[in-house]
Records
---
Amino acid sequence: MAVRMDQELRESQVPWSLEWLGEPGVPGQASGPEDPGGPAEPGGAGESVGFGAAARALGLKAREFELAVQLGEVRTVTTGLGRRVACEELRRVTAAEGFPEALIARLRVVGTAEGAELLGISQGRLTRLARGGFFAPVRFYVNRYRAVVWLYLASELTEFAIRQPELLSGRTPPGLSAALAAGEDWRAAKWRSRRIGQLLDQTEDPWERAAVLASVLGSVELASAVADPYERAHLRQLRPALVRMRPEAGAVRDVIDAVVTADDPREIRRYRAALASSLGDARRARPTPRPDAGAERPMEDRTRVRGRPRSLWQKLVGRR
């Protein structure tokens, strides 16, 4: 019933047109009917619209559009009004073969139960494969029991099944079984890697790129990696949010912090090495802002999540 209602809602939406997005060369025209995102930005062929108008133009819900941007399905531009979507990009997406069904299919996310049903395997097997790092979560949320619920792209699960069908049946490989018994779980690290890559793709500014890499390090690790307190303060100021948290999310904030903070020693070393390289680029581009003499030193604002020892599964598969 819910699927049918959702389909009817999509079919009832009016197809987008430049008439209500704002034709190029018509400055100030609204970017959509009752669009809260504001008017289309003037600028001829470079005209852009807000995220709300772009989502409606593509027939996507807010969360679907957010995911489309994260996955690079919809490209954004940085303007004086912030990040927006160029009208030319909307033309490109809507002109693609199979639109909108193909786009919606690529954005479909599934939980463990639905993913297991999609692949024709048990939920336990899907969880074991995810913990082993065979595919990466695309999202997560914390349920009422303060447990992390992982979500996956349906298209990636299908691709995995085609690529490695031998893992969908029979006995679990001995190495993976031993690693899982020892507590191996790659889901959070895989999600962090995906999210950091998405955020790096959104900026070319060297300090912003360094802040992205610093966002997964706890305060102790960051202080060790970046000795200058003013550079650390600047990185914290530029640090993007890896996930959106509601104001009332205080009860689960520690659970979310554990997911977004790197905890494996080798993962931490990789991010520290990447941060050191990015900081070198940033320092050559421009110095970090510094307050007047006598100002108080900036305060740290994050706590460290303890690292895990090297896992058995990583030893078995030769990961470094």
---
Amino acid sequence: MDSNSILLRVTIPPNVQARIMFEPLFVGAQCKTLTENKKVIWSSNITAMNEQEYNVEKDSITGLMTVHIRSSQYEFQALWH
């Protein structure tokens, strides 16, 4: 795992929706890539296609990344630069 990344494993119980929020790891950091189970679901590279299965929001002022998810098990990794 890269020192500029965070790995989060989470289980959302049945019949529940949730928001997972990733704060920048350091001042001025911007999310470069967000993956779920090693599959890219969001990328700052505009030529890469963001996964439509996930609703990912980026706050351009704070750098906060928010993922809206449903009941299931997830393994997210956010890479910052």
